[in-house]
Specification:
394 residues; alpha/beta; seven-stranded parallel sheet; six-stranded parallel sheet; 13 helices; 15% strand; globular
């Protein structure tokens, strides 16, 4: 296949985990002669349609995604059955349309996904983006979960990771070097403008921990760090925690009460609309990422261009992309004392950054992804490797 030939690619994100990333990647793919078609669920009533409708085939979970009639206890079973039905439809579509490449973005039900991937790789090249190279971002997992993380990588002809540390994590897990390509995550932007500045705002230094609340994101560490601050310093700090909980919040709320931090913490435990996101971003003086583990962070790529001070653990994309002392402060992972020092420094100095233009790197990302697709096609056909470069810098 020639370097300039049009490529038809099926991209699979059944649960539509990352619509802003999917939409931005689509722009880069189209700019490089690729015709993408996304295999997803329907857009939910409260969500914005981010992917172009002509480039989506929303057949996953069509009858079950927002079905209020399904009892809560049965929803996991219903989703499993619906996912199986969706994979059967996916296999039929692959056989009928014969795409040049099938590209899985996320694995949803590993035992089922692996079976579908094993069949698809017999018919056409198969690519998988490994957004989280450390399984479950370091959380304890069962052998079944480990199977669900490792086996899909064995099925794919080529793997995409977003960071050099992610590449090394896969090498350490025994993934062959020739299967791994580093293609960076690109910048993301909200589709709504920032709200007008308020005439009055909270005078305290406001830090924001944003996104789905999971154990690896270190909210417990942030609570302990704030609790260790001198009382007079603590009163000058406000912490907003905004995002849908994916863990039990009760122990954290109890700990906030034990430490007497109710005045410092403003917890908004739900998924925010884009308008609400723009508003809470405007409230923040700083974004905090006390993560235990991460590869690439969608939240980081969403806020890095806003000109706000960043405090982040020295892991993954933060360690590779942030300029310490210019973009913000990097701290050792799980170091509560260092996190507290940086919070106190922010309260004292009120550091600021000028907003920076968000570079349009998605065209370069699309170009790198196209090269990977050509590589996968060549390998599937038993041909030679296309090019020697295994790490693409977009």
């Amino acid at each position: 296949m020639s370097e300039s030939a049009k490529l038809d690619v099926m991209l699979v994100d059944p649960s539509l985990f990352t619509p802003p990333y999917d939409a931005a990647l689509t722009q880069g793919l189209v700019a490089n002669g690729i015709a993408p078609m996304w295999m997803t669920r329907p857009t939910r009533r409260a969500d914005r349609q981010e992917l172009p409708l002509p480039l989506t085939d929303p057949f996953f979970y069509r009858r079950t995604d927002e079905a209020s009639w399904i009892p809560d206890k049965l929803k996991p079973v219903a989703k499993g059955i619906a996912h199986f039905a969706g994979l059967v439809k996916l296999l039929a579509k692959v056989r009928r349309h014969k795409p040049d490449v099938v590209h899985f973005q996320w694995i949803v039900v590993p035992p089922l996904d692996v079976i579908a991937m094993a069949l698809i790789r017999r018919w056409c090249p198969l690519v998988l983006t490994v957004h989280d190279t450390v399984p479950y971002n370091g959380q304890k997992m069962s052998w079944l979960q480990r199977f669900g993380h490792d086996t899909p990588m064995k099925c794919a002809h080529q793997l995409i990771v977003h960071t050099r540390s992610g590449r090394q994590a896969l090498l350490d897990r025994g993934v062959p070097e020739h299967k791994i390509t580093v293609i960076p995550h690109g910048p993301l932007q909200l589709s709504v403008p920032a709200p007008p500045a308020r005439a009055t705002r909270d005078p305290r230094w406001t830090v924001l921990l944003f996104g789905e609340i999971k154990p690896y994101k270190g909210l417990d560490l942030l609570i302990e760090a704030v609790g260790s601050l001198p009382v007079e310093v603590r009163h000058e700090l406000r912490v907003i925690v905004a995002g849908r909980p994916r863990m039990d919040m009760a122990p954290l709320v109890e700990r906030i009460a034990e430490l007497g931090l109710q005045e410092q913490f403003d917890i908004r435990p739900r998924r925010l609309s884009e308008e609400e996101m723009a508003a809470v971003f405007a409230e923040a003086d700083s974004f905090v990422f006390p993560y235990r583990q991460i590869d690439a962070s969608g939240v980081y790529f969403l806020v890095k261009g806003l000109g706000k001070w960043l405090i982040a653990s020295r892991v993954g994309i933060f360690a590779e992309d942030m300029h310490e002392g210019v973009d913000g402060a990097l701290i050792a992972s799980e170091d509560i004392a260092e996190l507290a020092r940086e919070l106190q420094d922010g309260i004292t100095r009120r550091p600021q950054r000028a907003p920076v233009p968000v570079a349009d790197s998605w065209t370069a990302i699309g170009r790198s992804t196209r090269q990977l697709y050509l590589q996968a096609i060549a390998e599937h056909r038993g041909g030679q490797r296309v090019g020697d470069e295994r790490s693409a810098d977009a």
